[in-house]
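Comment thread on ticket #2218

A.B. wrote:
> Attaching the input chain for the structure job we discussed in standup.
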Amino acid sequence: MKSIDRLKFVRSALYVPASNARALEKALGLSADMIIVDLEDAVPEDAKAQARSAALAYAKAGVGNRLLAIRANAFDSAHHADDLAALKNCAADFVVLPKVEDVSEISDFGVPLLAMVETPKGLFNARSIAGQPTVAGLIAGINDIAAQTGIRPGPNREGLELSLQMIVLAASEFGKPRFDGVCNRLDDLEGFEAECRQGATFGFTGKTLIHPNQISSANAAFGPSAVAIAEAEELIAASRGGAQRFKGRMIESMHVEEAKLTIERSRHAMGDVID
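C.D. wrote:
> Ran it. Output below, let me know if you need it in another format.
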């Protein structure tokens, strides 16, 4: 299965600094569905060139059955041109572009792109960004959205709901995956689990992470539970085509397709997929 087709099954996407060799090595043994090797925020200015070389070598060596993305520096960054030249047709499955505000900022890296929506302008242009053929999915940049708008998110991310749902709607129109933003509260696992459940409820297909201890919670929230899998199997078996009653509710072909996707997601989550 092609990387772009596997992207819709990604539950957890872990950022790892390209300048941290130990973290890169550790990531190979983690259960994150995708590793995002970061050249942007996590890398000091004086380490950009070294980090770029490390990211390219890491991608070339491979990361097993998981997906790999490299986050470049933003379009308006002094490092973007060097990233573009170095990452062109690289061995990574995707390149992540931060702070995309307009389709004119989408550079051709020769591999599918994940566009980060992190600004008011980016939010209003999210639909056109998601519609670009080279863009495989969207990532919410929550911290920057909050900083640029003055929104002070509450414990349940009050104030950010509209921004998050704009990203979901834009990606959904084109049938593309969309990833919830990171959670900075590393010691609040209960709060993180609640945020994952909220993101899944909003319609995100996965979540970006900044620490390994967040992986299992994201995988659980964005992957189908045993109850959901059993329900899906029962619904498919009971379906006779057209509208009908099932366990006290009406179902039709749309619900059967959703059930089939649940089964498919469970197979990928268990690793029972032949590439």
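A.B. wrote:
> Thanks. Noting for the ticket: Strands lie at 12-17, 34-38, 67-71, 94-97, 113-117, 135-140, 178-180, 206-209, 244-246, 249-251.
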